[in-house]
Specification:
Helices cover 39% and strands 25% of the residues. By secondary structure, it is α/β, with parallel strands linked by helices. The protein folds into two domains: 5-225 and 342-372, P-loop containing nucleotide triphosphate hydrolases (Rossmann fold, 3-Layer(aba) Sandwich); 230-310, Alpha-Beta Plaits (2-Layer Sandwich). The strands form three sheets. It has a six-stranded mixed beta sheet, sandwiched between helices. Strands 2-1-4-5 form a four-stranded antiparallel beta sheet. Strands 12-13-11-14 form a four-stranded antiparallel beta sheet. A hairpin with a 2-residue loop joins strand 1 and strand 2. Helix 4 (111-125) packs across helix 5 and helix 8 (220-228) crosses helix 11. It is elongated and about 80 Å long.
Length: 373
Amino acid sequence: MSTDVMIQASDLSKRFGHVRALDKVSFQVKKGEVVGFLGPNGAGKSTAMRILTCFLSPSAGSATVHGYDVFDDPLAVRRSIGYLPQRAPLYTDMSVIDYLRFTSEIRGLSPATFKKRLGTVIEVCGLAQVMTKDIGTLSHGYRQRVGLGQALIHDPPILILDEPTADLDPNEKAEVIRYIQEIGRDRTVLLSTHNLSEVEQACARAIIISKGKIVADGQLEEIRAKSGGIRYVVAVDGQGAEGDQAAPGYSDLEEAFGKLPGVKHVRELRTEENARRVEIAGPPDADLRAEIFRLMVARGWTLLELRRDAQSLDAVFRDLTKADEALDRGREWDEAVAAGPADEDDDDDDDSEDDDTDAASAAEPVAEAAEKR
């Protein structure tokens, strides 16, 4: 494996009884990348992340983090990562400074190293105003910042963040994304979310998972182009000037533009001030603007607007993951319950888990590291 590959998943599979949460998932994350890990609720994101962070073992396949196998060398993996679960497991009766000191001691940092790292964490996470306050008195946004601080205190080369902006208001979300952008300048980040605008702000590459399988992996522009194609928005004068040919109707536009090479469909958009607007879904490997213009001239129609852009990431996401995924997963659960007891624990891949589950998971490396010491 290349030394530039920080995270490597190879044919990862995970079953919970009769339910397959992950199905032969393979991907790489290289040094210095900030990668969005996308998928609807129940798609398998959290299961994959818990395998990478050594909280779950795979049913099949393998994974390495920073060159260490997650099954054979879990403590080395945990030393190499900073992990922030969806809901940061914090000790609410501790002050922020005491909590960060506690997590640094558990990770084996010396007092001098902690003092040096603390200044960076305070600056990056924006914690200067709350260091002496009890965590229980903080807003949810500040608690997420504290959770991010504990993930950074030991200066890990890899950050794994599971829904870090969940339940935050718009201002808090913007702040957390800004921190992630800053953090991602000098380390590898795997960011799990289903908020596509956050991915567009913070990530250059995305991995999309649906029903436990990878359905897209690449740069955002590549995913848009390959999965969604290119769309053209055309506005045509719907009134027509005296002496000109009659203004076209929507059926005329659909018939004419639908014959252009590679066009998948023509869809009517809203009418604005006698301008008839349509969306043309074109091929990803061609530019149809010249063809559209020549057709307009040949038909004697007046062109008011012509715009070419890639399909939105939201539309691509919906196409790839399908709106009925939740129903499919629900049927799988019903079948599993009807089939009888599961061989393993219940699926904890639900993205709306109880805080106690995340707290227990996060306490695991703390106890293990303490025992090691």
